[in-house]
User: What shape does this take?
Amino acid sequence: MVKKILLILAVAAVFGGGIGLYYFNKKVPSMATEKSELTVTASELFDAFDTDEDAATAKYVGKIVAVTGTVLESSTLEDGTPKVILDTGSDFGVLCEFDPNTDHARTSFEPGEELTIKGECAGLNLDVQLARCVVVQ
Assistant: This one.
């Protein structure tokens, strides 16, 4: 009886470990293939958070948002991933960190350039944060 229980536990452990390993190694899909749920301007997005952060969090956070705006600033992270801040007309902007799982056609952007960027809204942290971003063609 004890051997049966140990065998069942061993099989369950191997099965559980296999499932865990699968999810650990599963790649996050590229944002380029995801469809945007909402479309706004950078100013509208920032104003929504500035006016009523709770309502904006409920509406935008965790959703894929296409944001159109003017590049205020552009830089590159240590791993070579681009980062862009879109101008909102205030002291803060919309910070777009590009998707490291995507090969980007462009990795440099000029201040004053008009762009539409799609990414997952992560909320407000001085700037409105968008993660896993890609440029919408």
